[in-house]
Structure to design on (568 residues):
């Protein structure tokens, strides 16, 4: 026999679980009672305050004018984000260019649009016809013009809104995309180079798809933020959700009720974006983890299954 | 006598003020396997990276298959190559990295088909068939749809070898292909490399696997501090080194 034998654990059954007296947490109880009291008083005041006139909120929640405002808000969000993402990718790639003129101009753009408030930019585009009454597209200094027209017909309130929101968003998206590109390791580029891929192919096929994992969460954040920033467009008389609500309360003098209506719809829309972002992140998480995380539905199904199993084994 | 596949004459490489290669001269004949040995920091990997122009050399001449790396010579002057020309030449040289560098967002099959489809314009189904064949050859016929994160290090490195082979390179560069692997996974990768050498592929291998060097290499080069200290037949260099530095290195690794 060898000198040091390894003891095998006793084979008989499972060892007994520890049963100990748990530590008491009186603080939790005190905090819980205080929070419940505060919550209850808040709900009580909201529910019993006759001046809130909840039926007015109900009357206007599904109003035709409110729905039209919602559609415009969604259009503005989608349009401005599309412009922002395209500009952002372009500016980020430019910013990483070895050509100092290209990277410098990208830097200048980002600096300018981040240095001024978006509300000021919106008002600027809305009023730009005052200083540039005529706009044309052509070759500068040669008098060659492909398209031209009056600024008032080209820069409509919609164009001013999209320009103001989209150009500003491009500057922020550029920084997000740049962070994503930088996060992809140098080895990926080298491996692609050694296979003979061109710089454009490497960016499009190798770097950007991997950068997406880093880009998506803050972009979702930006989209949610944009959805609410579109409310600023009400100052240039473009009727989105907030202005639609304002137009109604300017007639019936129920501002709080209509602002509640608008808030409810903003909250509904942002919540929908949460769900979209979750699935988008999951899609670009491919290959990052050994297994994709379960969708909420799968999680519920699994939860039920494990519950049933626990009941089955006494 | 045939022209050498790789020919280096007095290759120098500096990073800032640090001189990493101090005049490397060597030749690799087509079909030969050259093993580069040496302590870390001796310039082996840098030299390998110079061959497919991941690093630019500062002086000397370096050519692959009779053509200068990164330059065109005309009228007694060197002209820098365009990016597209450099890319095309890189496509003819396969490279396998220490840390595999597989594309994590693609399956094993997609990793292998990516370059033939994008660079050579090969049809997808033909690329798929060839990739499946290559992955079978490196012993991974059942891992086509696995993502790199689902594979062991040794399996990942074999996918990387298949990926490089998919471009039908005339030269393969291996940069410490087994250094990042657990010891029990090294064998499979070396086996794949051995098989490749047996098929007549020209290979330059930076490695610390002395067994592989002794068995597979046609010649061994020992580098230290940016110069070639000793080169020759593997039996001679490994069994009976002439230089003190080679002897000291071998006594540590063997």
């Amino acid at each position: 026999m060898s000198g040091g034998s390894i003891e095998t654990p006793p084979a008989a059954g499972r060892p007994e679980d520890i049963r100990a007296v748990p530590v008491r947490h009186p603080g939790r109880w005190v905090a819980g009672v205080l929070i419940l009291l505060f919550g209850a008083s808040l709900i009580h005041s909201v529910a019993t305050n006759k001046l809130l006139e909840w039926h007015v909120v109900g009357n206007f929640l599904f109003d035709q004018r409110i729905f039209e405002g919602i559609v415009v808000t969604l259009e503005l969000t989608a349009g401005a984000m599309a412009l922002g993402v395209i500009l952002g990718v372009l500016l980020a790639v430019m910013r990483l260019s070895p050509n100092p003129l290209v990277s410098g101009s990208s830097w200048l753009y980002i600096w300018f649009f981040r240095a001024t408030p978006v509300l000021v930019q919106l008002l600027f585009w809305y009023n730009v016809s005052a200083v540039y009454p005529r706009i044309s597209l052509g070759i500068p200094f040669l008098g060659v013009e492909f398209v031209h027209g009056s600024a008032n017909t080209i820069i409509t309130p919609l164009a001013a809104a999209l320009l103001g929101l989209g150009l500003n968003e491009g500057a922020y998206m550029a920084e997000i995309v740049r962070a994503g590109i930088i996060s992809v390791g140098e080895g990926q580029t080298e491996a692609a180079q050694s296979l003979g891929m061109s710089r454009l192919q490497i960016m499009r096929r190798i770097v950007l798809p991997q950068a997406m994992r880093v880009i998506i969460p803050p972009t979702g954040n930006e989209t949610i933020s944009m959805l609410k920033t579109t409310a600023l467009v009400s100052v240039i008389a473009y009727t989105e959700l907030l202005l639609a609500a304002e137009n109604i309360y300017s007639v019936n003098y129920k501002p709080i009720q209509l602002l509640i209506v608008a808030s409810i719809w903003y909250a509904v829309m942002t919540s929908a974006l949460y769900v979209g972002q979750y699935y988008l992140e999951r899609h670009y998480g491919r290959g990052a983890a050994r297994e994709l995380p379960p969708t909420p539905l799968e999680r519920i199904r699994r939860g039920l299954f494990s519950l049933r199993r626990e009941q089955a084994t006494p | 006598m045939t022209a050498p596949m790789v020919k280096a004459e007095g290759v120098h490489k500096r990073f800032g003020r640090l001189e990493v290669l101090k005049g490397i001269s060597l030749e690799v004949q087509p079909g030969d396997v050259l093993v580069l040995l040496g302590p870390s920091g001796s310039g082996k990997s840098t030299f390998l990276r110079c061959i497919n122009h991941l690093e630019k050399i500062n002086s000397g001449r370096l050519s692959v298959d009779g053509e200068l790396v990164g330059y065109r010579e005309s009228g007694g002057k060197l002209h820098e190559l365009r990016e597209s020309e450099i890319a095309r030449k890189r496509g003819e040289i396969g490279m396998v990295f220490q840390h595999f560098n597989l594309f994590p967002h693609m399956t094993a099959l997609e990793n292998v088909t990516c370059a033939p489809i994008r660079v050579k314009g090969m049809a997808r189904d033909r690329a798929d068939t060839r990739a499946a064949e290559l992955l079978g050859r490196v012993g991974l016929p059942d891992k086509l749809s696995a993502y790199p994160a689902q594979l062991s290090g040794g399996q990942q490195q074999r996918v990387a070898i298949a990926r490089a082979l998919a471009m039908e390179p005339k030269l393969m560069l291996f940069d410490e292909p087994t250094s990042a692997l657990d010891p029990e996974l090294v064998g499979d990768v070396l086996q794949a490399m051995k098989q490749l050498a047996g098929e007549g592929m020209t290979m330059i291998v930076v490695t610390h696997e002395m067994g592989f060097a002794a068995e597979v290499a046609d010649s061994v080069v020992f580098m230290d501090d940016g110069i070639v200290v000793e080169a020759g037949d593997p039996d001679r260099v490994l069994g009976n080194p002439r230089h003190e530095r080679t002897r000291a290195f071998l006594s540590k690794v063997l």
Summary: Chain B has nine helices and twelve strands. The longest helix of chain B spans residues 183-198. Chain B has a mean pLDDT of 93.
